[in-house]
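Go through this:
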Amino acid sequence: SYSDRIPGLNPIWHEHIGRPGELRNLAIQRAMGKYVLFLDSDDYIGTEALEKLNTFADEHPSDIFAFQLEGINRSVPRSMLSTTSPDVDLVDSGLYKTLGIWKMVDRDFIVDNDIKFDPSIRRGDDVLFFIEAMLKARRMSVLSGYPFYMLRGREDGSSITQDEWDHSKRLSVVKKAARLVLDLSQDEKTKNHFMIRIFNAD
């Protein structure tokens, strides 16, 4: 088993329920390390990803770490993840455009700010989580120059992300996202850019 091969690994076995937010919240509760890195079941990370991220985080503490992505049978965000920077502006960097799960986050920051995934929805919980997290973060960093995270698209298009999104459920997520932006944005520039991102992409 993986726990026999990897010291400190604590697997949690749970039946498939089709709502990732509930299991992601459980993982945050059980996490024992300083940082939480989210990895979807279809994806994988580079062999040196954790070591490089840990070294960078030790040198440049941050609330949220975004990193270079590679896509397999799918496209991925690139421009805002192409240059390493220990402290990026949320809007000027373009980081607000990447609201997917592929990031590493300080666990104390998550807990102290009571940020949770919506356990009731099948899709879009990562968008809501990272809108809230980014707007509450004091510092965000980008690490590039290495394929940290590989996102895989299924050739048969059967993953949750690739499924057609029911319009009413999609609109419900967009409305929740807009409310977070209105409540948490510190300035009009941030608010306007997030609103454009939400209504154009989600």
User: Anything to note?
Assistant: The chain is about 40% helix and 10% strand. Helices lie at 2-5, 20-30, 49-59, 107-112, 125-136, 167-184, 188-201.
